[in-house]
Design brief:
mainly alpha, 434 Repressor (Amino-terminal Domain), 9 helices, 73% helix
Length: 195
């Protein structure tokens, strides 16, 4: 296969994976959408400077753009970028738990360790899921996103159940029935394919 055609297929696949139109890609490169269209039809190749810009934009190497076979692998993410994403996600989740500890000990000093202060830690679970939900949507993909939504739904329901049980002394177990249709929706979303 000719180099122009290889580049055309790789560029088109990367652009579609990001969900960008040719115009959006062109704007990011300060080029016209006509040039991007020519590249994707295999009629021309960008110059070396733009080729490097494209590789950086999609977080791949120039080699990746010009190779016909990728061994069925996903678009590679640099080790540093992947590590940084893991660290940012972990720091954000740990911050939620740090805030939970601070609140727990603050209430402990004010009210001499209230019997319900342990609920603060339970509230940290759905709060952590919200943080993970944001980063899953940004970086980690559909599978982790849907798993996080499931954990968020069930942990929020558990928190509400235990909070109401603690406050009223009554078990309102039917609240967990809300989780059933929510879980069905998550399962259906998992089966959806992007058009």
């Amino acid at each position: 296969m000719e180099l122009k055609q290889i580049f055309a297929e790789n560029l088109s696949a990367l652009r579609k994976k990001k969900g960008w139109t040719q115009l959006e890609l062109a704007e990011k490169l300060n080029y016209s959408d006509k040039a991007v269209s020519k590249w994707e039809r295999g009629e021309s190749l960008p110059d070396v400077v733009i080729l490097k810009q494209i590789a950086d934009l999609f977080e791949v190497t120039v080699d990746y753009l010009l190779q016909e076979e990728h061994g069925g692998k996903e678009v590679p993410l640099s080790k540093r970028k992947r590590r940084n994403r893991i660290m940012i996600t972990g720091i954000s989740a740990a911050t939620v738990w740090l805030m939970g500890c601070i609140l727990f000990f603050s209430f402990g000093f004010v009210e001499q360790m209230s019997p319900g202060s342990w609920l603060i830690f339970l509230a940290a679970v759905p709060a952590t899921c919200v943080v993970l939900l944001v980063f899953s949507a940004l970086w980690w993909g559909k599978k982790l996103l849907l798993t996080t939504v499931s954990i968020l739904v069930w942990s929020a329901l558990l928190f509400i159940f235990l909070l109401l049980l603690f406050l009223t002394g009554r078990s309102i177990w039917p609240i967990f029935l809300i989780g059933v249709p929510a879980q069905v929706i998550v399962g259906l979303l998992a089966g959806m394919r992007r058009a």
